[in-house]
Amino acid sequence: MLLLVLSALLLLFCNLDVWYFLRGVQVFVEAWFLPRIEDILAEQSIDGMVLPHDLDYLGHMNNSRYLRECDFARFHHYMRNGLFMASRKLGAKMVVGASTIRYRRSLAFREAFQIRTKVLGWDEKAFYLEQRFVSKRDDFVSAVMLCRQNVVGSSPESIIEFIYKKQVSGFKHSS
Ligand SMILES: *[C@@H]1O[C@H](CO)[C@@H](O)[C@H](O)[C@H]1NC(C)=O
């Protein structure tokens, strides 16, 4: 029986990025219990640290891990400012349409950092975001990523309208 469970787990971990999905759940739950952020243009930051999982042969955070961390940071961001729920309600999907990243200084093993995410703007198809990795050692910006978050099945404008209408009607009810 134990052997069966272990083999099933092995199979799962070999074929699926289990940590990715667990981390997604963790971000969701964490953000759920934090207060909502009303201003969708507000910069939000989350804390991170370089773990053994992130390392490559050079012993620093591998370039691809930055994008992965940015993913979770954006998810957190959208959870807190309502973009996530609004896009779900409107049946929209948010996919990355483009990204570009500049690496300015390596993040070393166990180095603590913040990811500061903000929405820079939007057009009829996509939101544009900036995500900065800031070392907690000296506030140095170690990497900067720009990302186009395409909205499929709706539009950024409808999502924003949805969020702010809800806020306005919520305000009316409480007054
Ligand atoms: C490092 O990043 C490259 C992509 O540039 C990827 O192919 C590789 O698997 C990554 N290595 C590790 C150890 O994460």
UniProtKB/TrEMBL annotation:
Transmembrane portions of the chain: none
Signal peptide (from-to): 1-24
InterPro entries listed in its UniProt record: HotDog_dom_sf, THEM6_lcsJ_thioesterase
Key words, A-Z: Signal
Pfam family name, one: 4HBT_2
Entry similarity comment: Belongs to the THEM6 family.
Protein name: Protein THEM6
Species this protein is from: Ameca splendens
